[in-house]
Amino acid sequence: MSERKMEAAAVATAPIGGGMRREPSYASMAEQDDFDLSRLLDKPKLNIERQRSFDDRSMSEFSIGGNLKVGMDGYDPAYSPGIRSGFDTPLSSVRNSFDPHPIVAEAWEALRRSVVYFKGQPVGTIAAYDHASEEVLNYDQVFVRDFVPSALAFLMNGEYDIVKFFLLKTLLLQGWEKKIDRFKLGEGVMPASFKVLHDPNRDVDTIAADFGESAIGRVAPVDSGFWWIILLRAYTKSTGDTSLADTAECQKGIRLILSLCLSEGFDTFPTLLCADGCCMIDRRMGVYGYPIEIQALFFMALKSALSMLKHDAQGKELIERIVTRLQALSYHMRSYFWLDFQQLNDIYRFKTEEYSHTAVNKFNVIPDSIPDWVFDFMPCKGGYFIGNVSPARMDFRWFALGNCVAILSSLATPEQSVAIMDLIEERWEELIGDMPLKICYPAIENHEWRIVTGCDPKNTRWSYHNGGSWPVLIWLLTAASIKVGRPQIARRAVDLAESRLLKDGFPEYYDGKLGRYVGKQARKFQTWSIAGYLVAKMLLEDPSHLGMISLEEDRAMKPLLKRCSSWT
Ligand code: GLC
Predict the structure, then answer these.
(1) Quick one: where's region Disordered (predicted)?
(2) Residue 556's pLDDT is what?
(3) Ligand 1: does its nearest atom lie under 6 Å from the Cβ of 18?
(4) Is the CB of 502 under 6 A from ligand 1?
(5) pLDDT tens, 262-302?
(6) Which of 118, 129, 260, 277 is at 20 to 30 A from 370, Cα to Cα?
(7) C-alpha to C-alpha distance for 349 and 366, rounded to whole angstroms
(8) Which of 141, 146, 193, 458 should be mutated for ligand 1, with most atoms under 8 A from CB?
(9) Atom of ligand 1 at shortest distance to CA of 193?
């Protein structure tokens, strides 16, 4: 039975899409009989105990700052997670019996409630399980990006099947023909989300998926494919089972995703050109061009793919292209996206209209375009990757996801990673406030908000994507701070979150400059807020989990810049 057979009839079903609006959807459907996950699962299972995903390295070896001691809070080098729990027993909370925060058990229960089944197999978690909300919109779907923290929580708890089934299911969806009006999308595009529909009369499960054709703004999710690759590596690292990544299907899936990004064109930069709304911020917010979130995920996906691609004829060719691209990408990002006090001062003094290869101000950034806030925001110690760099345009906003992923993927040099953490500490109130952590800083207001968001009523200042605080991001902050050897940053953040999350019903986001208010239109029991918290807790309990979502720096990519004061 061919995967292409799953191409589907257009059916108007539940609303699907990146934005949260009720509208008819013309999603592809695949019937239960059309495909069978187990076909890909027939391979003999490796009987491998869960491996320490840390490559058995000690924490001190791994930490950049060198100040992460074996005696770090909660890290027990003698602990060896080898036991598999049943689906109902959170291994994490058993292990954590000395510190059983009441939220942990509640969070696991809520996470399990959100699990979605296809033909009886768990294939993902819905975005939110909010019965109080009158509008379901598309929060009853499995979003690829939202599932990542759920998947990590399950992997850390020794529950591998749901992750495996998710990876296989989305891989099959990738095989669908994707069309927007009369335009066909690239083969490699992964869905933003999918929904399982059950017909009780025929006892048949069907899938409806969205690749951007139903999303507000009709934008394809560039991040989905990258998260898929990153998750496949996490699964492989966590289980020690390479047989899934080695299947011809997974190898092809990786190749298709990356071929989309590595094709030659008119680009003069190694970064990836994107439309607004193609990632976590899935509506117009001025993140078009070369957004940091996508560049960091792109880098991480390329590196993850390198560790999984086979050196066969097709793999070899792709590997060469990946290596070349990684070098150019890391040079570009480390040179042009990096901002610290010294660099800001240099840009402030830039000459403009320089021509030829001797230009210092290569992109002709006009110093007058530097926003006032950044001069106050920039501490003497610290730095970050700015939001976007393109001709005559630097978006100086700080974005949480891109900066944390830059640390985890080693796109940031060790010195830059330390500087990013320094900045978070120096600007704690602005970036963490009362609820970790800001999706971006600062908010856009007034005239700028009108122009940049197109008057979006959901993205008003300090709300939602426009400077709102998103609990899900705690897992990324935690992972990054452990990698840099500063887990105390994560502890402080987790303590803050713990004081509110359960009481407030695990909201999707918080509003306000400090993130004190439950978001205007935030869902309750948002799955990734729940899972993000659990992942943060488990990482702090057992930092050896870090290996599944962290990549080491490659020596070949080390041309350090000289000018950053925050590096010394
Ligand atoms: C919002 C978020 C998006 C998320 C979706 C489902 O649209 O912006 O990142 O995937 O909700 O939770």
Answers:
(1) 1-23
(2) 59
(3) yes
(4) no
(5) 998 899 999 999 999 999 999 999 999 999 999 999 999 99
(6) 277
(7) 10
(8) 146
(9) 10
* % residues pLDDT > 90 (the chain): 72
Beta bridge partners of 209: 28, 194
How far does the chain reach from its first CA to its final CA, in angstroms?
60
Task: Give the integer Cα–Cα distance in Å for 124 and 435.
Answer: 27
pLDDT tens track for 174-224: 989 999 889 999 999 999 999 999 999 999 999 999 999 888 888 999 999
Rg of the chain in Å (alpha carbons): 22
Report in angstroms the alpha-carbon separations of 176 from 187, 204, 564: 8, 20, 47
Q: How far is the CA of 151 from the centre of ligand 1 (A)?
A: 16
Question: How many Cβ atoms are within 10 Å of 349's Cβ, its own excluded?
Answer: 10
Residue nearest (by alpha carbon) to ligand 1 atom 3 = 280
Atom of ligand 1 nearest to the CA of 20: 7
Q: Residue 269 corresponds to which tokens in the numbers above?
A: 């930069």
Contact (CB, 8 A) for 257 and 298 = no
Atom of ligand 1 nearest to the CA of 138: 6
| Amino acid code (one letter) for 168 | L
DSSP state of 86: P
Instruction: Please write down the long-range contacts of 559-564, taking CB distance under 8 Å and 24 or more positions apart.
Output: 559/331, 560/413, 560/415, 561/334, 561/335, 561/338, 563/342, 563/343, 563/346, 564/338, 564/340, 564/342, 564/343, 564/383, 564/415, 564/416, 564/419
Residue (of 423, 311, 434) closest to 377 by Cα position: 423
Nearest atom (ligand 1) to Cα of 146 = 10
For residue range 424-460, list pLDDT tens digits in order.
999 999 999 999 999 999 999 999 999 999 999 999 9
Tell me, using a 6 A CB cutoff, whether residue 140 lines ligand 1: no
- Ligand 1 atom index nearest CA of 128: 12
Q: Is the CB of 440 under 6 A from ligand 1?
A: no
pTM of the model as a whole? 0.84
Position in ligand 1 atom list of the atom nearest CA 18: 7
pLDDT at 90: 53
Split at pLDDT 50, 70, 90, the class of 20 is very low
Q: Tell which one of 136, 150, 280, 527 to mutate to probe ligand 1, the residue whose CB is within 8 A of the most ligand atoms.
A: 280
